[in-house]
């Protein structure tokens, strides 16, 4: 798994790029890499959400805790795999992290609002969470692609 000096991909990016045939396409576009990162982050998010709901925590608070855990995982994956070579140094890195956190807070607001609203209408928490995930995924991806990691 050798990388040339101008290869901006992370080790994971190189590994995905070396997958056979159609699987290599997973790493070709930032939206597919973002989708993979989101799936991993969502697994952390939903797992914590479901555990907290099972212990009778409020669905809105549970969604906030799950989403927050997912944010940390997503930063680690986004900065090294989704948008390789787009990370900054020094002050610019701090501003990039701030932008990432800002988009995460936006996604958190979308998620908590939708989950709270839909569960208040009697929707099952997991269905409300699914609707929130769909909306926040696209809003946050666009903001990160064209703002945070431009």
TrEMBL record:
The chain crosses the membrane at residues 34-57, 63-83, 95-118, 124-143. Keywords: Membrane, Transmembrane, Transmembrane helix. It holds the Pfam family GtrA_DPMS_TM. Residues 33-149 form the GtrA/DPMS transmembrane domain. It is found in: Membrane. The keyword DNA damage does not apply. The keyword Transmembrane applies. This is GtrA family protein. It comes from Parasphingorhabdus halotolerans. GO terms for cellular component: membrane. It is a multi-pass membrane protein. One of its GO terms (biological process) is polysaccharide biosynthetic process. Its main location: membrane.
């Amino acid at each position: 798994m050798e990388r040339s000096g101008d290869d901006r991909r992370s080790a994971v990016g190189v590994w995905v790029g070396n997958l056979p045939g159609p699987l290599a396409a997973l790493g070709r576009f930032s939206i597919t890499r973002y989708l993979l990162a989101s799936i991993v982050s969502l697994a952390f998010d939903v797992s914590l959400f479901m555990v907290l709901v099972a212990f009778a925590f409020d669905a809105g608070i549970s969604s906030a805790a799950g989403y927050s855990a997912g944010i940390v995982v997503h930063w680690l994956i986004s900065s090294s795999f989704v948008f390789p070579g787009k990370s900054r140094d020094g002050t610019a890195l701090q501003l990039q992290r701030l932008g990432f956190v800002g988009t995460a807070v936006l996604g958190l607001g979308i998620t908590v609002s939708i989950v709270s609203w839909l569960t208040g209408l009697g929707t099952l928490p997991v269905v409300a969470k699914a609707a929130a995930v769909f909306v926040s995924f696209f809003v946050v991806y666009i903001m990160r692609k064209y703002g945070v990691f431009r």
